[in-house]
Amino acid sequence: MLACSDLTVAYGDIVALHGVSLTVGAGETVALIGANGAGKTTLLQTISGLNRPRSGDILFEGASLLGVSCERRVRRGLAHAPEGRRIFPGLTVEENLVVATAPWRRTGGSCAAELALVFDLFPRLKERRRQLGWSLSGGEQQMLAIGRALMAKPKVLLLDEPSLGLAPRLAEEVYERVTRIGETGLTILVVEQNTVLALAVADRGYVLETGRVVLEGPAADLKRSERVREAYLGR
User: Fold this and answer.
1) Domain limits for position 75
2) For helices 168-183 and 112-121, what crossing angle results, to 10°?
3) Tens digit of pLDDT for each residue in 116-147?
4) What CATH number does the domain containing 216 carry?
5) Domain count, the chain
């Protein structure tokens, strides 16, 4: 479904990704774990078109995304829930959700079915649908960011640090929803510092350190890996 091949990304003279390769199969949930500054967000931004790689390729359903605009990537089926949530100020919860339907709703069709699905997944958003999005709690804003990405009707959902800044209980609640989304068959690539949560929902995982993939394999194997346990899980 999605494949990154030997991606190198740099910001001026600073190389953030060094020949990164990974794959995400249809219906899989894949976790990309690593410490802050490892290059995880850079990789997601490159997949979604916000960064241009210095070399390498990104294939989506077998076709290269090089030179494809962010908007066209969304139309093809990539949706990105970014780090920091990026809730649109001045818009209500429902307006934040509906704005994401623009790429496929130019003919004026209804998005009622998509709203109903998001509200079923996140009942709290339905209760607060008329409330300004920026006034929600951190956990609710994260749910809104994920719901907004789902409104784009993606084939692949990119999640950047969905537990960032959340209390443990709220982080677990968000990941319960990620599990439910994965159970629908949607393909997910999730970037996380919280290794425990990410590997609990993932089928496979990759470990990124200083811009390089240093480990990969089934999530269960990574949880048992001595290197992962020492660096990210604790003994």
Assistant:
1) 2-233
2) 130
3) 989 999 999 999 999 999 899 888 999 999 99
4) 3.40.50.300
5) 1
